[in-house]
Amino acid sequence: MAGEEQGRRRFRTWVGILSVLIALGLAVGGYFLLRQEEPGKYAGPVDKVTVAAAEYLAGALIYVAEDQRFFEENGLDVTIRGYGSGKACADALINREADICTSAGFVFVSNSSQHVDLRVFGTVATAQVKELIVRKDRGITTIDDLAGKRIGVTRRSGAEFLLGVFLTLNGLSYETVELVDLKPSEIVEAISDGDIDAAFTWDPYSYDIKKELGENVISWFGGEEFYFLLLAQRDWIEDNPAAAERFIESLLEAEEYIEDNSEKVKEFVKGRFDYEADYIEYSWPRQEFAVILEQAMLITFEDQARWRIENNLTDKTQIPNYLNFIYWDALEAAKPEAVTVIR
Amino acid sequence: MSIRKKLQFSILVGGAMAVLVLGLVLAWTSRQVHEAVEQSRLIHDVVKGVFELNIVTNDYLLHHAERAQAQWQLKYGSLDQLLTGIEARNPEEEEILGRVIQEHAQLQPLFSQLVTDYQSRELSGEEIALSLALERRLVSQLLVKAQMMVEDTFRLEEAVRARVESAQRRGSFLLMALCLPILGVIIVLIVLVSNKVVAGITTLHRGTELVALGDLEHHVNVGSSDEIGDLASAFNEMTGRLRESYQALEEEIVERKQVEFERNLMEAQLQQQQKLESLGTLASGVAHEINNPLMGIINYAELLKDEPTDEQAVQYADSIIKEGNRVATIVRNLLSFARQDKESHSPADLKDIIDSSLSLISSTMRKDQITIEVDAPDDLPNVRCRSQQIQQVVINLLTNAHDALNERYPSYDENKLIRISVQPLEIEGSTWVRMTIEDRGPGIPEDLAERIFDPFFTTKPRDEGTGLGLSVSFGIVREHKGRLLVESKLGEYTRFHMELAADNGWTHAEAQDGVA
Fold first, then answer.
1. B8, A11: Cβ pair inside 8 Å?
2. What number is the ipTM of this complex?
3. Which residue of B has its CA nearest to A10?
4. What residues contact A56, with CB distance under 8 A and at least 6 apart?
5. A305 to chain B: which residues are within 8 Å by CB?
6. C-beta atoms of A342 and B12 within 8 A
7. Scanning every residue of chain B, which has its alpha carbon at the shortest distance from the alpha carbon of A5?
8. Would you tell me which CATH number, out of the four given (3.40.50.1010, 2.60.40.730, 3.90.550.10, 1.20.1440.210), belongs to the domain B3-203?
9. pTM over 0.90
10. Are A206 and A129 in contact (CB under 8 A)?
11. Taking 90 as the threshold, does the pLDDT of residue A66 lie above it?
């Protein structure tokens, strides 16, 4: 009887152990099968990075990543230096005052002929912010009415390039209109005072014009996509590929955060850049805060470069191979589907 | 093996087989699906690559940019890698894949020629026109080849999908085919275990029913060493104990009944004795009071008779004397009942007493055609008694039997039989002798049986009995510290048992103490 009882107990023990093992196996298997691929938090050495960032809406990803401590969580000690324009940011990068900068595509293209070591490793925003605004009281109600009208534009800027594209696509040319070279800040006053009949400009100046003229304006978006880029020097990015990748990961987290918390971010940006609430609502739908590297971006760069050559804005005669300016390893490692450059 | 173990074993075996087969089929299906997805992804990437190649070709044609040329080469190289990764699993797929690879290979020389044509375009007007015509032709060829490549790639995808679907059908069939034997094994295991368990339970159930019906000899045998077997063993053990308890209980009941019967009997005797003692006291008193005046009456009647005045007076005197003697006899009997006369006890053989008694009444018996059978062993122990009194009892009992038989059978009948039996018996360690007188008369009704030993109780006509015979007999036997019992069944028989202590050398007083 005692032996039988012992055997029974041993059998029960084995059944128990087997059951526990099966349950554990199922649990572990289930965990590995069903778990979401979540990257573990960075635990390595901290890299110091200085970023020259434009202090306006298109640079929001950088500021949100800082505010939400995404850089910190990814092992980056980021110092942000704010600048009023993308050109100033690019200059800071070129002058080695910053490791990374945010800059409009046109600024990059302008510098690419002289600074072949510039590298594009992502975007912080794509936008449709450049637009043609006309005064209705000047008899302009259709694009065709632009013929012979005075259009204010900042010459040798991306705005002039996009105005050309706009006119061409609508059967007009520079010759059919009168271009008036004005700084962006001057354009608002000029069109408000009636010195010019129309203006081709971008946020926030387009907003200011509409605010001044109220119902007396008609506007059209200016064609091509506007890319706001992440730039770095070749040597920095080759020396710090891991930091570049973690920088991209931080921005991707900020991108997701903005998607899920748009109202919070609007409030944050309003405070950060001292914007009017109405301006935020005006400009927000025109922006897409996304880190990408797409084929159309290359075409745009070449178009802009070609335009610069054709308008003698550079002494170069050959369009650079912009493929050589792209560094996609960081973004491909963090989010491969965001890289759609043909290769 | 216990039922739990059997069930656990069955579940483990069935579960393990099911998990194994399901796991294998799932793994196989998963592999198929994974392979299909992988192939599909590769094919999708090839198609996407061809379209991208076309985009870059057009891009190159637009501005002949170095970037577009570089991208074309990159894309061509990546397409080459993709095509290397695609595995053809059957001749159809091999043929299609071969065509795709061939078409892909044809793209490279065409594009190279396109680039060369453009780079060498420092020609005169006519040559430029030829160069542009060549460019158009080359682009046309590139587009045609790319289109063919896309179409063949889609065909390849279709072939791969058909192969995977076929494999999935085979997998489903395999699953079904394997499920049936597994199901069979599980069913067989369950049936075997349940049959074994149910058979054991049924046997136990039947055994329980039989035991409930009183068959305590039933033995259950289930022939297994599991809990049912243990239960059967316990059941058999329990039945055995129940049987022993039942037997002991039966014996105890019999014993108790016997004790109760004897106690009741003794109580009845005691009551009767007390009643008769009271009656004896009463009768003795009455007899003494009656005896003296009665003697006076009889004497005066004698005197009248001795000195007759007339004949009528003599007749009256005779009648007075006759009736007076009759009353005197009754008074003597009453005194006898009350034990007024004293006689010493002496050893006597009951057979002798029976013989003496029969000699007195045998002629009467013969006259009434009554047969008497005597059954008395030769080695009967003597009893210490007053022989005359015991003889009186025997004659009384025989006379009652004679009257009863005559009442039931006025003429001859074979049942006109009186049986006298004598046998020794042990009562509480002492030797006694029991004499039984049995007749086949009408028997005694139950309501009368209690009163038959009462003085003056009789069912006979007044001139045939005084009602003192049985009461006097009872008093005699009681005087001997014996017992006179009656046993009767209406319409069948009547038995009188007289039990007297055997002569063991004790004095009468000692014998009294022994009985008491």
1. yes
2. 0.71
3. B5
4. A84, A203, A204, A273
5. none
6. no
7. B2
8. 1.20.1440.210
9. no
10. yes
11. yes
